[in-house]
Amino acid sequence: MDKELAKHVVSVGYHSLSLLESLIPMLKKHCEPNEYAQYLKAIGAVSAEMSAQIFDQVFQEHPDVEKEVEEKIKKFGQFI
Q1: What is the pTM of this model?
Q2: Rounded distance, CA 41 to CA 61, Å?
Q3: Within a 10 A sphere around the Cβ of 75, how many other Cβ atoms?
């Protein structure tokens, strides 16, 4: 995969996960505890799968992209 495409794939993935994670406070507030726990588990599973199936593959091919992501997270507290 081209490096610029790899960076875009990672960016879209991180932003997608961020949107999913932004649901957590709303779900906690408006769902019953059992229902909330199910959604929380599902969001965690999606996050783990995204990491295993997309990020790990991209970072294996482009370790410099992984380093760039880590630096941005360290500097800004999130990937931007």
Answers
A1: 0.82
A2: 29
A3: 9
Please choose, from the candidates 73, 64, 80, 45, the residue with its C-alpha nearest in 3D space to the C-alpha of residue 6: 64
Distance of alpha carbon 12 from alpha carbon 53, whole angstroms = 14
State how far the Cα of 68 lies from the Cα of 74, in Å rounded to an integer. Answer: 10
Alpha helix segments (H runs only) across 1-80: 3-22, 24-30, 33-50, 56-61, 63-76
With 90 as the cut, is the pLDDT of residue 78 above it? no
Per-domain boundaries in the chain: 3-76
Residues near 79 by beta carbon (within 8 Å), at least 6 away in sequence: 10, 11, 14, 15, 69, 72, 73
